[in-house]
Amino acid sequence: MDNGLKIKSFYQDAYDESGRMARNPLEFIRCKEIITRYLSKPSMEIADIGGAPGVFSYWLASQGHHVHLLDFTPAHIAQAKEYGEKHQVALASYHCGDARHLPYDSNCFDVVLEMGPLYHLQDKGDRLQCISEAKRVLKPGGVLLCEVISRYASLVDGFKYLNINDEKFIKILDGALETGMHSPGETPYFTSAFFHSPGDIKNEMAALGFCNVDIIAVEGFANALDSDEILKNEQQANLLLEYIRKTERVPELMGVSGHFFAIARK
C-alpha cells in the first residue's frame, strides 16, 4: 500500500487523533506554551498544516487569529467542521490537501505550524518539498514552527510501556534507531513515520535557506516519567514545567523528549 494511503487509513480507521492531546496533556500544554511565544500580534494570519481535527486551530482562533486548517485526511477535516458547527465558531478556511502542495498564495502567513507532516513523510525529498511550501507561503519575517518526533521516542516508550516484550516491536525499534525510519508493517503500532534527530531537522531546514534554527524540546526529560500523574498535583506540575523550561534547549537531553520543535524565520 502507498505510504500516503497507509497514513490516511491509519487515521480514518485505526486511530482517533481528535482525542490525542487530551490523552497527552503535557505535550498539549507545552506546544501551546511554545507557540504562544511567537504570537507577536493580536490578530495574525496562521496556517495550521497537517492540523488534524484542528485542536490548535480552534485554540488559536479563540484568541482572535485568522487560522487556515489543512489536513491530508478527509475525516479530520470533517471532524474539524463538525466541532466548529457545534461550538458556533469557524476557522478562516478548511482544506483537505497535501502539505507538499499548499493551496495558498505566496507570502500570506505570519505563522505556519507543521505539527505532523514532517514526521509522516519518510522520503527526504518529500520533507524538503513540505518545508519549501511552508517557506513560500510565509510572509518575509514570518515564523515556521515544525514539531517532529525524536529519533529516540520509541526507545523511551518501548521501556516505559513494556513494548520491548514484543519481538516485532524490537525489530521496528532497531530500524528507527538506525535510520530514523519507523516502519510498523502490519503491527498495531504507530503508522509509518520518520523520527528526526536535531541534526536531521536542522539540516533539512538549512537546505531550504532557513538559518538560526532554534530547537526546543516539548516534553523534555519528563517524557521518561509518568507525567500524567505528576500533572494531577498543582505544585508538582508547576515544578515539572519550570524544569522542562530550564532544560528545553540542553542538547544532551533533547533525545529523551518525545517531540521537539524546530523554529525559524523566513
SSE arrangement:
Layout: H1 3-14, H2 20-23, H3 25-36, E1 45-49, H4 55-61, E2 66-71, H5 74-87, E3 93-96, E4 109-114, H6 117-120, H7 124-137, E5 138-149, H8 153-160, H9 167-179, E6 181-182, E7 193-194, H10 198-207, E8 214-217, H11 227-231, H12 234-246, H13 251-254, E9 259-265
Parallel strand pairs: 1-2, 1-4, 2-3, 4-5
Antiparallel strand pairs: 5-9, 6-7, 8-9
Structure, explained:
This protein has 266 residues and is α/β, with parallel strands linked by helices. It has a single domain (3-150, 197-265), classed as Rossmann fold. It is globular. A seven-stranded mixed sheet has the order 3-2-1-4-5-9-8, sandwiched between helices. The protein has a two-stranded antiparallel ribbon with strand order 6-7. The longest helix is centred in the first third of the chain and has 14 residues, at 74-87. It contains 13 helices and nine strands. The protein starts with a helix and ends with a strand.
Multimerization status: single chain
- General form: globular
Quick check: average pLDDT? 93
Q: CATH H-level name... which superfamily?
A: Vaccinia Virus protein VP39
- CATH fold description: Rossmann fold
State the share of residues found in helices, binned by percent.
40-55%
Count of runs of 4 or more consecutive helical residues: 13
Characteristic terms for this protein:
single chain; 266 residues; alpha/beta; seven-stranded mixed β-sheet; two-stranded antiparallel ribbon; 9 strands
